[in-house]
């Protein structure tokens, strides 16, 4: 196959960074309830303490801890109850020596008190007295002012993807709108004369369009916005027109099919027909997914993903997603792990990926000189987690559906031995 300009994963990642990562990305300010999954543009400093008053974390009696020292089941301490805290109000009574104030969970800690005894360790003793059966340590059952978040603290870093818990931090601080990076606009173009829309029954020789759905899903899961997902025939002019339209409103164009060097594989020729275009790579030293085109038209990054559904997904995960993350301002982690062993890889996982360590259930072969991606299913066997290779042709979509994740075998590695610990990057 006459692919030229074949680059390794490390090389293409570097080229992509050099070509596309510019300094400032567009931002927008959104109400907090629309910011889930978006990437915070700037560091956020707490303007107040959370909580901004000391609170009880249990239902019980606010006390001075030293008044309870030595209290036990057989020799309780006795305290006078001088009041009760109302939720949503500051404590109306201070606690002095020998006194206690009832406080519900989350209620304000009265002045003078430094601990709360849980109600189950007390007993009413008549005449406004309680018996305390257990000693309390200072600050026991108390969340002090600023314990959760301290004023002046950098609570969130720019580049953080906002998960539900980050929205929680922002709400605790009363931040009701946030500045986030604008999502990347993406066009998904699936090519092939044999591909039919999924509502059609394919005739012999035809197949339904899988890639539009898998690639759209991958883009959306990575925080991008799909402007269009269209099917295009294997026709130079039709493909050129589709790409011309896509680059008017997209930051990233993802073609699939036609990236090889067959007679009707137009991707590379169409890209080259645009002014100010550049082929960064045609062919990657990656398995699967070797016939990939990586290019630039103006400031738009254009990928010709392999037509095989599993390969197209894999190339997206390995090459496109790290770029997409970078371009949307996600945390400045390195785009590629330089790791040569799995131990190192475990320490430098790629962007926004989650991984687990597991033992390889069998020997896994690798393609010499290429980065090999091996799909695996995870299985628990007698309390140990195993990565079981999922084998099949890269045209099989069920292969991806059976896989929980994949392992990345570096070009210098010969393969994986049975029982060797591997890092499984989860889908
Ligand atoms: N002589 C050689 N032929 C091929 C080589 C090679 O090294 N030498 N590499 C093979 C590999 S590996 C791949 S991957 C494919 C990639 O080729 P293309 O990117 O040009 O893709 P197509 O030929 O158009 O399609 C390949 C395959 O995928 C199916 N396909 C395409 N689009 C979709 C879609 N949207 N939904 C579902 N399936 C799709 C298509 O029907 C083909 O079966 O090249 C090999 N050939
Ligand atoms: O490399 Mo192809 O992308 O195996 O299917």
Automatic annotation (TrEMBL):
Reaction it catalyzes: adenylyl-molybdopterin + molybdate = Mo-molybdopterin + AMP + H(+)
GO molecular function, one term: metal ion binding
Swiss-Prot/TrEMBL cofactor(s): Mg(2+)
Pfam families: MoCF_biosynth, MoeA_C, MoeA_N
Gene Ontology cellular component terms for the protein in this record: cytosol
MoaB/Mog domain sequence ranges: 187-326
EC number(s) stated in the UniProt entry for this protein: 2.10.1.1
The keyword Zinc-finger belongs to this UniProt entry's keyword annotation: no
Entry keyword Cell inner membrane: no
GO biological process terms held by the UniProt record: Mo-molybdopterin cofactor biosynthetic process
Keywords: Magnesium, Metal-binding, Molybdenum, Molybdenum cofactor biosynthesis, Transferase
Pathway: Cofactor biosynthesis; molybdopterin biosynthesis
Enzyme class: transferase
NCBIfam families in UniProt: Glp_gephyrin, molyb_syn
Function noted in UniProt: Catalyzes the insertion of molybdate into adenylated molybdopterin with the concomitant release of AMP. May be involved in the biosynthesis of molybdopterin.
Family: Belongs to the MoeA family.
Protein name listed in UniProt: Molybdopterin molybdenumtransferase
Species whose genome carries this gene: Acidaminobacter hydrogenoformans DSM 2784
